What we know:
By secondary structure, the protein is an all-alpha fold. The chain is about 75% helix and about 0% strand.
Amino acid sequence: xxxxKDFIKKNTMFLALIFVMILFQVLITSANKGSLFAPTxxxxxxxxxxxxxILATGMLLCILTGGNxxxxxxxxxxxxxxxxxxxxxVMGMNVxxxxxxxxxxxxxxxxxxxxxxxxxxxxxxxxxxxxxxxWRGVALLILDGLTISPFPDNYLFMFTxxxxxxxxxxxxxxxxxxxxGGILCLVYLAMEILNRTKKIRKGYDVNTAIxxxxxxxxxxxxVLVLSYLLGKNKGIPFVLIIVLIIVAIYSYFTAKTVPGRTxxxxxxxxxxxxxxxxxxxRSLFMAYTNMSFLxxxxxxxxxxxxxxxxxxxxxNYELDAIGACFIGGASAYGGTGTxxxxxxxxxxxxxxxxxxxILGIDANWQKVVKGLVLIIAVLVDVLNKRRAKSS
Length: 391
């Protein structure tokens, strides 16, 4: 019984996501408005929320350092998009060189933020709030208040295409997506077996085999269902591959590397981490530099999706990323959270938006619902912290 409670506690948001998806499916079907799991809708859900997944991954690293956030990411998205529009569309510069310059711009902005936060010790809220206004203003100056479009096909190809390329028919698309999904499941299963075996060998506590492999089975089933649905439409979006690569890299970084684990140590107790020999300044600098780098990546994805660079791009993107992290289990105090949790939070937010939109719920009520979900997630975190301290 205790192990069941522990399993539910560790996977609360994942179970909540499944419940919400089933609930919306029932409501949408009952209202005769299609299906949440329609192949076209699933593809749109991925394309519409890819930027949230990318930004939430970077935002998590900032939050881990002590509940810090970056309010400037939406403005960085707008600025990088504006630069890309000027370089690629207006000046006709080489696409790959333009992308490189855009990514360097993101890194440079993050380095400026990181230096002021980590070494000058200006509070992150103030630095990124100033950045939110500054970089939005620069983006407006570059665009002169106008929208730049359209982008060339060779640029759009990198972010809006589908795998397989130039298929002979629907059968080829479905076969490809199922094969890719099966390979991902086998790799995930092998990694879980190796990790579990290693922990048992070292004498660590592990979940029961039923709990551990039951979770693997549920995730693999979800992957195969997703592969099937994508295969019934256009195939695997390139942007999904980009997101999966980012999530895999940062999951490994936070869980298996020393620099990644230092972020948790800083969030737990920065003074203790510093006394133990951790270079806290460097870790903070890295977290905020990385955040703006991923904001630049998100910008490249967004302008390809909209096929334009607009002054309004990136509006409220920082709130989506922050909300995804907290809903996904990141602590408002720092030191707790996973990339996987941030991904679940981002998907949860995307399903809420998509499901309510299909049902025709007023946009104002959608904001009310998302706000309530966020405050409940943070409230649960605070109450758990208090309960842990009292016990």
